[in-house]
Amino acid sequence: MKFLNDIADLDPKLIDQLLMLAQRLQKHPEPDALKGKILALLFLSPSLRTMTSFQSGMARLGGNSFMVSPDMAIHNLELEDGAVMDGNKAEHIREALPVIASYADILGVRAFAKQESLADDLDDKFFNKIYKLIDKPLINMESAIQHPCQSLADWKTLDELTIPKKEGKFILSWAYHPKALPLAVPASTLKMATKRGMDVTLLCPEEYILPDAIMRAAKDLANQNGGKLSISHDQKSCMNGADIIYAKSWVSPIYYGRNSEEGEIRAKYKNWCVNDDWFDTNSTCKFMHCLPVRRNVVVSDSVIDSERSIVLKQANNRLWAQMAVLYHMLLGV
Amino acid sequence: MKFLNDIADLDPKLIDQLLMLAQRLQKHPEPDALKGKILALLFLSPSLRTMTSFQSGMARLGGNSFMVSPDMAIHNLELEDGAVMDGNKAEHIREALPVIASYADILGVRAFAKQESLADDLDDKFFNKIYKLIDKPLINMESAIQHPCQSLADWKTLDELTIPKKEGKFILSWAYHPKALPLAVPASTLKMATKRGMDVTLLCPEEYILPDAIMRAAKDLANQNGGKLSISHDQKSCMNGADIIYAKSWVSPIYYGRNSEEGEIRAKYKNWCVNDDWFDTNSTCKFMHCLPVRRNVVVSDSVIDSERSIVLKQANNRLWAQMAVLYHMLLGV
Amino acid sequence: MKFLNDIADLDPKLIDQLLMLAQRLQKHPEPDALKGKILALLFLSPSLRTMTSFQSGMARLGGNSFMVSPDMAIHNLELEDGAVMDGNKAEHIREALPVIASYADILGVRAFAKQESLADDLDDKFFNKIYKLIDKPLINMESAIQHPCQSLADWKTLDELTIPKKEGKFILSWAYHPKALPLAVPASTLKMATKRGMDVTLLCPEEYILPDAIMRAAKDLANQNGGKLSISHDQKSCMNGADIIYAKSWVSPIYYGRNSEEGEIRAKYKNWCVNDDWFDTNSTCKFMHCLPVRRNVVVSDSVIDSERSIVLKQANNRLWAQMAVLYHMLLGV
């Protein structure tokens, strides 16, 4: 695999293989597997889990990594083609990225959506451009519309909890957040759950239905894998019998790039904070979130501190899933 | 050992064992000892020695480390329980810390005193709270009131200079500094020297006597280990026959949390800068400081650049002492 | 070798040996060569290539590194001797540097020119001072007037392209840039090319001829190694038959330290941007630059995106050249 990108494009057999490998590496350390190998980590957007889990994972396999972030003491990066660079940006991504890649055996890049044009972000315009600049294996560590590492970790988490593939009821729920957040996680999550063949419901206010391209892709995956996809705007009815509620906030696609308008719409839904009222008395439904999460805004303390919450397990599975990805991409097995 | 915290609580036999191990690792490198092991370093306060010596020490033993600091490109951390996170803080320490810990085999955390409530800081309220969030071995890399790594390094330094335990005369002297500094280093140092059984004098202006809880703990350690503890406000008489003067600035406990008042008191003592006049003509007294130190404010160039000064040896011993701690905590030997 | 500093001072046999070693390590990895060894990287000035290539190189050889930068969460460093440190600088380089060095086996330091006094910067006053503070091998990662790592990488690049030593025509050309840049790269490059025995031309506006001390040193190197050195202010005639144009911007030595005056002079030469017009129709002349480069200011997109450009090869050779330096300095072979 040269490019870990869209979870929808991964061969289901490869997913099985990666998750088995993840489990093997978790149980049986291989501290010499990637000896002498170098992972370059380029963060054009902030990170905590991704940054630390990739560093840890590479080191656990005997390799090493280096990290580049514009917040470090490096020159500002120019990202636009054709720019006359007479301002405050001293280096172009067209040099910086291939140079960094040339010091490494594999590269991870993070660059969140610019949220100016929905079409550009759905096309992952920036990420697909930089992909052409390098000839080393590339890991998408979250782009405008993809977050495959999160989806692999989430899939592993669902497997470990023995949430059924075919009949497991998976709710992806929008939640309130003070900022307009990107679509990468909800898009990847919807595709992950439908690809896993689950009974998936997108639960959100009407303005927050994911873009058509994402909904169609998820529908196709549901059809191919024996799953279902529906939409609901009603928390109470929708949550009945759910195995998983995966909460996340995201921007309204209808008002994409129009921040003040979108903010007004969003403010109507401050009550979309997952709390105990969402769950039936005897519900065993688990709570998932990719983190970071705003407590008492996206989810109440009472839910995230309860046994329902598997957010720490999800986060920990980032480590093992990514180790499997590194192992597979570097060693080809 | 699951938690390296208060130097007072360490079994004297364990201290001997750790310092012998430190010496052994200094002489006989073991570059495979911690192969595949990961140290997570969380800095909620600034660092130079701690950050670099832990990274170096872990690597010298064949392990690896990753570092997280709020000054890096990570989300602001919310530290207060029950917060409604609708402001600029995107992640709670209750998620961030366990996640980081789950990627590592051992964790080091630094969080300086908030200097709002003396009682809270003496109780190490924040540090004891975060300790409960994780299930991995934890190293206190300086909290509100503890700095055990510094104390182990200092103890090793005293041993190497063959400063006698029983009759060695140890002066912990307050010094002027433009800022109100925390109590962690003076508290740990006083406990270290009394626990080592030395003849210890706390030398300071009357407003700068350490809090009762610290003085009592140090007195107990002196009693248990055949040492002495006294207080002096007079530099000249006190320095007579001293083997060590350990300089450090700290906030007045009387004016704790009241910064402008405390600043007025402190300003009276600008002449508390350790210089040549403090030493008798033939004195062989050594000068110690934990660093960073403000030259010509806390200590004169003439003293710190003289042969009296053993501050670089102290700093270097951080490396070996911490390697012993990592080795012991991870391998149990 | 205890100090990698001036390319002019390196024994030509050692250069050959280092470049052969670089090639060997590129072809035949030695992931255990520097096991347990630690490289400290101190950046007092920004970096991208240097920071990442040293980290990667050390790790590829089985060693490890740690990085210190004032932009990280460390105390501000005081650099002036005799300072009364009652301002915002909490630690002196006289402590910080020896401490960092004591945690490492080898040290790399970067500190750009202050551009206040030409004499001080030509003497590399700051760098020669800090050299005396440590007793570990030291690598100059770019000082006021030296950049030996870049020159070794450039030499390797010229060798690989089989650019002839004796008759190869090498143009070092000044280029426009919105800021007054240091002299380290042009000084090192001129010495590298003359030391390699090439037919070297310094191409620049009259105000931008390098300082006498640099010109004399380069002339001596040309004489000793069968090369030539001349000066030209005319792009067209000068480029005739050139094998290499190495572009770089730098401050006018005449107006050194007088930024607004220098800026007015520099503004006259905005047309010194290397573009297609500079090259004869059939010219095979290659384009070099140390990076970072400002596109469409220093060089046009059309040139840097063409086959002429070997800037990525240069940057990649930083890795291998520096690995050879580390290997040689730490293992003595």
- What is the element string of chain A, with H for helices and E for strands? EHEHEEEHEHHEHEHEHEHEHEHH
Beta strand count of chain A? 12
State the name of the first-level CATH class of the largest domain in chain A: Alpha Beta
Q: How many independent structural domains of chain A?
A: 2
Mean pLDDT of chain A: 96
Helical percentage of chain A: 25-40%
Please explain how this structure is put together.
The structure is a homotrimer of 333-residue chains. With 333 residues, chain A is α/β, with parallel strands linked by helices. Chain A folds into two domains: 159 residues, Aspartate/ornithine carbamoyltransferase (Rossmann fold), CATH 3.40.50.1370; 148 residues, Rossmann fold, CATH 3.40.50. Helices cover 38% and strands 15% of the residues of chain A. Chain A is built from twelve helices and twelve strands. The first copy, chain A, has a five-stranded parallel β-sheet with strand order 1-7-6-2-3, with helices on both faces. A five-stranded parallel β-sheet of chain A has the order 10-9-8-11-12. A two-stranded parallel ribbon of chain A has the order 4-5. In chain A, helix 8 links the parallel strand 9 and strand 10. Chain A is globular and about 55 Å long. The model of chain A has no long low-confidence stretch (mean pLDDT 96). The interface between A and C is medium-sized, with 32 and 38 residues.
